[in-house]
């Protein structure tokens, strides 16, 4: 093979940007690429020995992190179009923003937030608008990870995939499996996967014709299996994790204070308040490396995007509420049908509501993005520069520290023999993270105060 021939492996993987979506492996005409599971607990692309076609660059065209993949903002215009669409630098194009939840408490309590994803997908199945839904579920065949993409052709099977999974997912040839059958489908995914899905649909006519609806899940970061092993061991479990339930609501407690339930192979059970986990959540600790370079918070290429409604108005409702960003006419129609049938309740919300709800994710994916990209010598160029605006001086150091902490914590975890040795290995990166987190907060506070002062003047 020509050494100068570029693939998703010698560009995207080399830059720590592979999200393991498997789009490149599915469309590679020579079957040179495959997806493997790394010891750190996430999936990545690998190259075989087969020769590439000289003029082929399909792997780079479908990869959500490649320079050659379509610009996400341009793809959104192609998908949703229309002069009546609103636009936000943070959320992209949209028609409406709402706060919503299922009308029945039983449906709501069986969800992570307001139960809107299940309500929408169930309606699409029951109305015959789609034949099947592809979403993430727990399956014994998902080994070595705990979760994989599964196909549901009934509401009963769909309900088994409800609730969020905060861990790297086995793609299990998802694109090949979606394209096997000539059937109408809906798909649920995180921003990186949804972008790959849209890229593949541009190339593959069957998928393009059959992809009816996409539900996007707002994402700040995806954690590796190593992160959850660390959390379990930190809280006293020593055996291998058997099951994890990430979102368990606690009656009469604010919705953001849910529990994470973990059971190990020895039958030991932990119920950990997320407030005890949140201090390890930020700053890239044992996160999937590609998350350091994703600028999409609100899944801008989905027909509808969903997230927790954790602002002051709704956060106190322990049953859960969702913010809903509708982008397509079909999304608006489905939501209208669900309201008319009294399946969901819905009220108007604003762009300010969702920005406040996802403030931490916006900071990491927008404020820190350009510094992280420029500090990575293998990284793609800074695309969508119009929306990646770094306001604070501290961010030019803070961003690279977060990306470095992600990679160094994974390397340290693989080499460490105990929790104590791991924490000693990440002491410097953790200290720097805390210092610059404080500095960025202080700089942000000072900037807002000065802004108000000069506006008054």
Could you characterize what this model shows?
This protein has 457 residues and is an alpha+beta fold. It has 19 helices and 15 strands. It has helices at residues 9-13, 23-27, 58-62, 72-80, 105-109, 116-126, 155-159, 174-180, 191-203, 205-210, 225-234, 274-281, 329-340, 351-357, 359-367, 369-375, 395-415, 419-425, 427-456, and strands at residues 33-37, 43-47, 86-88, 92-94, 96-102, 132-138, 147-152, 185-189, 211-217, 241-248, 259-264, 269-273, 304-308, 322-326, 344-348. Strands 7-6-8-9-13-14-5-15 form an 8-stranded mixed sheet, sandwiched between helices. A hairpin with an 8-residue loop joins strand 6 (132-138) and strand 7. Helix 16 (369-375) packs across helix 17 and helix 17 packs antiparallel against helix 19 (427-456).
Short synopsis of the structure:
The protein has 457 residues and is an alpha+beta fold.
Please describe the structure with a list of short key phrases separated by commas or semicolons.
457 residues, alpha+beta, 15 strands, 40% helix
